[in-house]
Write a structure and sequence with these properties.
The strands form three sheets. Strands 2-8-7-6-5-3-4 form a seven-stranded mixed sheet, with helices on both faces. By secondary structure, it is an alpha/beta fold. A hairpin with a 4-residue loop joins β12 and β13. The radius of gyration is 20 Å and the shape is globular. The chain folds into two domains: 233 residues, Aspartate Aminotransferase, domain 2; 88 residues, Aspartate Aminotransferase, domain 1, CATH 3.90.1150.10. The two termini are 26 Å apart. α1 packs across α11 and α2 packs parallel to α11. The structure holds pyridoxal-5'-phosphate (PLP). The site of pyridoxal-5'-phosphate has 13 residues, from α3.
Length: 345
Amino acid sequence: MKVNYRINLISDTVTKPTSEMLHAMIKAEVGDDVFKEDPTVIQLEEKLAQLFGKEAALFCPSGTMANQIAIKGHTNPLDELICDSNSHVYQYEIGGYAFHSGIAINPIQTAEGKLNDQLIADNIKASQDWLPNTKLVVIENTGNRSGGNYYTLDELKLIANQCKTSGLKLHVDGARIFNAILEAGYTTNEVGDLCDSISICLSKGLGAPIGSVLVGPLEWISKCRKIRKVMGGGMRQAGIIAAAGIYALDHHVDRLKSDHLHAKQIESVLKTLQYVSAIKPVSTNIVIFDLVNSFSTQSFLSQLNHHGIHASAFGKHSIRFVTHLDIHEEMIQELEIVLKEKIKM
Ligand SMILES: *Cc1c(COP(=O)(O)O)cnc(C)c1O
């Protein structure tokens, strides 16, 4: 199987650690993190807890595990969580809410993949023997399937207020929270203040090879530590990978802006193409667009492949491109030429 595409737009998870990042990993001081004795893991957890104004944090092997631990940490069996129907916790975590937590889900269809205070209020279940208890709201910021869009601070405030008034917990799936923060202009602390917990991926745009971090209140994170262990996510000398996360937070946050710029450049090229019928407004590093009905995604993707470009279908007529650390300006230019001159309907 060919795995080395020159231009890999399939996801922002495909980045390779830079040599500086690898150096930080090699130098990392390590210990056994199951015994809380890995200083680098502790440093990473403290760094993110502090950034988001939370008491504590928990280093997890994946974003899926961080979300699933959060869901279990916030709920009891027979509870229910509310989310957008396009959200990762509903679409891509294999029904983990039921499997791990024994809860129900209410996936709500929204226009832009974003919940709001009214939708939440309207979907809180009455207290009846035959209904689950609405307990948790999960929002995704930025939204993956909705094309990388983000919540504004005002939208977050309204949601947070609604959750508080209704006694619901609010978890932010912040796999790409730094992409949101850079564009929406709020701070990590402001986001942290408005929710009960956030999961943050180090392995997406930040460019670390592995890892996600869950942040929240101290006592709650202690409970989550136990949940992480029962899921098999207690790691030993994890400082090796935590070091990559620390390096990423120190060096790869601001540069996300150039991923956003590249996505915008791609969007403006797509607007000129006759075989493209619709493009979701680009706001961060994700570009989702539709091909005209007569052009199959399979044919489009294999032609791209032929030119060393890798991307994925996202539904029947849709394609997704994701920009990241390993996509450089000259690749965007090359992509532009391929899209404009080489692709045949
Ligand atoms: C990638 C992603 C996750 C977590 O994915 P893992 O591959 O398990 O790390 C969670 N939520 C969103 C929105 C994502 O894009």
